[in-house]
Structures are given as C-alpha cells and as structure tokens.
C-alpha cells in the first residue's frame, strides 16, 4: 500500500467543494479533492442547470480567482425582480436601484462555475482525484489523522470535509443524523425561448400548483425556468410534449414574455428539504448540500453553501490542524454560525411556500394585502431587496 498525506481531504468537487479547495490552498494548505466525475466542460449551448448568485457568492468566487473567468465566459446579471400571484392582486417588484446596487444577482450555468473553479484549483496545486471507490477507514482522533483507502493507496488527512451533495456518503458514514421532509413537488427545469426579451428581470409567479420562476439567461430571448410543481401536476407536465410545456409556461406566466418555445431537454428534480442535525464528528465536517438542501423557490441553495465555504475557510485559517481540541473549537464555531443561517433560510422558505401555496381564501386575501404593502412602502421593499442580495 502506498501512503499519502494531505492536510485537508474534500470529498465532492462540486461548486462548494472546489471553492473551499481554492480558498484553503491560498492559505497554504495541502488539499486533496475526491470527485467521482471529470472536469465539467463548457458548451456552446446554454446548459440546463443554472444558479442565481448573489453579491456575496460572487465576491467569494472572486477570492477564488474564478469570477473574472466566469464573467468573461457567460453570465446573466439581473437588475429587477418581479414576483406575483396568479390568483390575487399580490405583486412585488424591486430593482437594484432600490438598494443602490449595480444588479441584484447573476444567473450562471452550474457547469461554468464548476469548470473554472476546477481550473483555478488545479492552478493552486490542489490535487483533484477522480475517485468513486474511496472508503473512509476512520475519522481520526487526538493522536492520528482520518484515513481513506483509495485503490492501493492509504490517504491520511487532518480534516475531512464532506461536500458530496444531498446524498452525502461522508455524512452517512459518520452517522450524522438528518431531518428532512419531502415537498411532494418536482423542480422542472428547461430553457425557454421567448418572443419578448426578458430585459434582465428575474420573475416568479406563484400558481396554485407551485411557483414558476423565469430566470433571465445571458441570451436576451431565453429564460431558464424552474417550475416547482406539485407531484400530480408535475407528472402531467413531464408527460407533455416540449411544445405543450412551452404553452403551459406561456399561459401560466400571463404571456408576460409573449409566445414561448422549449429550447432544451426538460429535466425534473425531486424537491426535498433536508438538514443535518449534527455537522461534525471527530475530524469530519460537512458543507453545502451535504449539510442542507432547501427549496429552490428563492434560488438560495448554492448561495447558502458558499456562505459555508467563506466561514469554514475563515475558521480554519492558521489553526493547528493536528491539535484536535483547537480544531474542534473552530469547527464548533463554524457549525453554530452556519446552522443559525441555515435555519433562518429554511424558515423563510417555509413561510413563503405556505403563504403562497394556500388555496384558503382568507389567507389569499391576507397575502394580497401583505404583498401590496411592500410594493408601495420603500423601506420594506429595500429590506426585501437586501434579503435577495444576501
Ligand atoms: C431545480 C434546482 C434549482 C436550483 N437553483 C438554484 C439557484 O438559482 N441558486 C442557488 O443558489 N441554488 C440553486 N439550487 C441549489 C444548488 O444547485 C445546490 O445547492 C448546489 O449545487 C450545491 O452544491 P454542492 O457542491 O454542495 O453539491 P453538488 O452540486 O451536489 O456537488 C456534489 C459533488 O460531489 C460529488 N460526489 C457525490 N458523491 C460522491 C462520492 N461518493 N465520491 C466522489 N464524489 C462524489 C458529485 O459528483 C458532485 O460533483 C437549485 C437546486 C435545484 C434542485
């Protein structure tokens, strides 16, 4: 067996694992990433999975040295948000001007973010291994590092970060318990060509069957949709032809962008809320979707994960990794801060979803009033815009 040592092993080279790898490498740590896939490639066509990145996430990507590369390739900044309810007068609209910002966020394809983070990580000497058949042998203790077997290698690490997504094997191996509920919804995603340009406006309409988001892509006449549809309706939509799906989008969005046409394959993701009740065990800690997955209705999942990266990199700076007591103290601070933000976000998503997901006429009336108010009260609108920017 060949013995290898690293300071920090990150399982999962998605956007969260790779961003963390870049920041830790800039702190002078030896970092190894275990990722089952090869580097995501850039395509000419707009990819299906996109993320709405807030200012904080973009700043973090800047620190990783990746944002300039991403921005040069293809991004869709948006300057205005419109949210409305199909069945009531409820309507909110706010713009970057309300908060004196240049924009409210940017829509970026996931594979573009991952491609450039990977490139940066390699430039920073991060050792990225294409590995699926790794096995955690132990979680380390006061005197010894955690250990993996990797083919004929024994890899030891002072810290293991599970950034391996919602079905995290690291989390399962460490027996970190989770709380979850199934939204009984599927997130249907597709790229839709529209007759009218989106003009850099992110739109979301709340329907009795679930929220439909129309996100402005870098192409003026293409939006990326995320339709979080209730289960029976989702199945009906998925059984439709691409032409019929586009007609549904056109009708349910009130033809706000004119005639619609499907311009990509259609994919569906089961939607589930999940968070780990414990994030840490010995020399193992979680980050990103491995620690929490939330409803995509406010497009905050990746942003929340980048918040983990920022905090984790900060608490790890200059700590003596070998000293498990010191390490645990820092990790404890990370977990407390990030759990608090995750819980806030989950509560906000629930309030939104319940407030809008209802067919109860009294609640519908109330939400119309609640929504009409902020549209006229500037301080409230500003607050909402600030939340969107966080
Ligand atoms: C429909 C939909 C729309 C969304 N829209 C937005 C949005 O607009 N804005 C936003 O902020 N968020 C959004 N999200 C959430 C966002 O996509 C996720 O939060 C984000 O991708 C999480 O990144 P991650 O790196 O933690 O996990 P993942 O992206 O799941 O990456 C995990 C990585 O680990 C690797 N891996 C897994 N298991 C192993 C293993 N055993 N061995 C080796 N490697 C492994 C995987 O190959 C993958 O590369 C959306 C989610 C959905 C479902």
In brief, what are we looking at here?
With 390 residues, the chain is an alpha+beta fold. It has helices at 15-26, 55-63, 67-73, 110-123, 169-173, 231-239, 242-252, 301-316, 324-356, 361-376, 378-389, and strands at residues 2-11, 31-35, 50-53, 76-78, 80-85, 91-95, 105-109, 127-130, 134-138, 146-150, 153-162, 178-194, 201-207, 210-216, 222-230, 260-262, 267-276, 280-281, 284-286, 292-293. The strands form 3 sheets. Strands 5, 6, 12, 13, 14, 15, 16, 17 and 20 form a 9-stranded mixed sheet that branches.
- CATH fold-level topology of the largest domain: FAD/NAD(P)-binding domain
| CATH homologous superfamily heading of the largest domain | FAD/NAD(P)-binding domain
Q: Domain count, please report it.
A: 2
Q: SS-based structural class?
A: alpha+beta
Span from first to last CA? 47 Å
CATH architecture of the largest domain: 3-Layer(bba) Sandwich
CATH class of the largest domain: Alpha Beta
Report the sheet-strand fraction: 25-35%
The helical percent reads 25-40%
Largest sheet: 9 strands, mixed
Shape call: elongated
Low-confidence stretches: none
Bound molecules: flavin-adenine dinucleotide
Quickly count the helices: 11
Write down the Rg. Answer: 22 Å
- Would you count the extended β strands for me? 20
Mean pLDDT: 91
Overall description:
The protein has 390 residues and is an alpha+beta fold. It has two domains: 2-70 and 110-179 and 272-351, FAD/NAD(P)-binding domain; 76-107 and 184-271 and 357-389, D-Amino Acid Oxidase, subunit A, domain 2 (D-Amino Acid Oxidase, Chain A, domain 2, 2-Layer Sandwich). 37% of the residues lie in helices and 31% in strands. It is built from eleven helices and 20 strands. It has helices at residues 15-26, 55-63, 67-73, 110-123, 169-173, 231-239, 242-252, 301-316, 324-356, 361-376, 378-389, and strands at residues 2-11, 31-35, 50-53, 76-78, 80-85, 91-95, 105-109, 127-130, 134-138, 146-150, 153-162, 178-194, 201-207, 210-216, 222-230, 260-262, 267-276, 280-281, 284-286, 292-293. The strands form three sheets. Strands 5, 6, 12, 13, 14, 15, 16, 17 and 20 form a nine-stranded mixed beta sheet that branches. Strands 1, 2, 8, 9, 10, 11, 18 and 19 form an eight-stranded mixed beta sheet that branches. Strands 3-7-4 form a three-stranded antiparallel beta sheet. Helix 1 (15-26) packs parallel to helix 4 and helix 1 packs parallel to helix 8. The N and C termini lie far apart (47 Å). The protein binds flavin-adenine dinucleotide.
